[in-house]
Amino acid sequence: MIKLNAGIIVIGNEILSGRTKDTNSNFIANKLIKNGIKLEKITVIPDNEKIIIDTVRDFHKYYKYVFTTGGIGPTHDDITSESISKAFKKKYSYHPQAYKILKDYYPKNEFNKGRKKMAKMPEGSELIINPLTIAPGYIIKNVYVLPGVPMIMKKMFNLLLKNLDKGKPKKTLTIRTNIYESVMALELSRIQKKNKKCAIGSYPYFNYLKRKGGVNIVISSWELENLNNIRDQIKKMIKLLGGKSFLVYK
Amino acid sequence: MIKLNAGIIVIGNEILSGRTKDTNSNFIANKLIKNGIKLEKITVIPDNEKIIIDTVRDFHKYYKYVFTTGGIGPTHDDITSESISKAFKKKYSYHPQAYKILKDYYPKNEFNKGRKKMAKMPEGSELIINPLTIAPGYIIKNVYVLPGVPMIMKKMFNLLLKNLDKGKPKKTLTIRTNIYESVMALELSRIQKKNKKCAIGSYPYFNYLKRKGGVNIVISSWELENLNNIRDQIKKMIKLLGGKSFLVYK
User: Fold this and answer.
1) pLDDT for residue A1
2) Which of A167, A206, A242, B98 has the fewest beta carbons closer than 10 A?
């Protein structure tokens, strides 16, 4: 069985400077888990050729699917495509179909150098169609190269998702309780030890205004057919500790 | 001159599953740039001992400051502190001061194993005080270990920030224009080539409802005393291309 895992490389100075919030990786993360693909790493790196090359080579080795966002526009600071060409020792050149799509879209005297640049990519790439603003993304080896603008990225991701190998979605279930994490830690750890085929995560919440808090306990598993048995053990624990539990399905 | 750079390691399955949006790294990014510290990488990894060890060792070598968020609570899935102890071959043991803070805080018969666990960290760590929920973070070598809950993390980051070496804040200035990126790409690239001491970033925006878009051009520099000269060159270019420009100071 091929391991269905993935990594995301977010390329952009604007994320590292704090100017822009990366919302793309959360979007992709949610899509992947629902399609049985395990996201194992997200990395945010600057628009720097050497760093892009090293990171792409690294991710290419470790993950079945690699998604990059950012740096494929028409301006001088868009260096993702040239860098990925170098990472895979491919010629950085016009993709005939991409060139045609862009040429047909722009009025003849407005198909300038910047716009032509958006047709340049590693030789041998397969296009990812952009239904919104024309300029395509592409696939080279196991790397899916997407733009950074969230609205466009999301449309394109939904299109490429259709062609990915998919696994069984990860089963997941959340129990929200008003008991504090530190009160239940020991008991929860015992339940985890008895149920090794699932992961039990514990995420405290606190409403400072209401001065009330508690924990979201997340049970998740790639293997189990249902989580009812573990859910019941946790509900029982909460009851014994004098708390309330609320189920939040996801 | 020591290079004032930094890396962030976000530790948590809940980010990779898409359940939780990481807002901590954007907060830290904004603080760092204003204090003259260059953020060079953000990585999101799972609660996995080997991956935490490898990533911490790696970041420890490359960055002056490393910040980790997540995985230092009382439950079984909080494995950050034990993993970082192993990364640096330090004993994972009770920090006397942290133990005392927690012991004094909880009623005697409620200072249970989970709560004691929050006093365990790599031997030789220096505490980062938690003014909100008591359980401290800590510093070991150049690694600043913080909790994942944003409200708590932010309070603690503001405290530790006081003790970091600081540089000159990065000068930055945004010009918003109604001209499309692909129209100005060539001219903008010429301006960038003439001004190598600054970085010129170009970030398209598009309001789909209004069917209007344009670009935010961000000029930034660690070196230059002011950006007025470059600002004027860009405004001139926009005017020549028939567009409007609006300055957005940051």
Assistant:
1) 46
2) A242
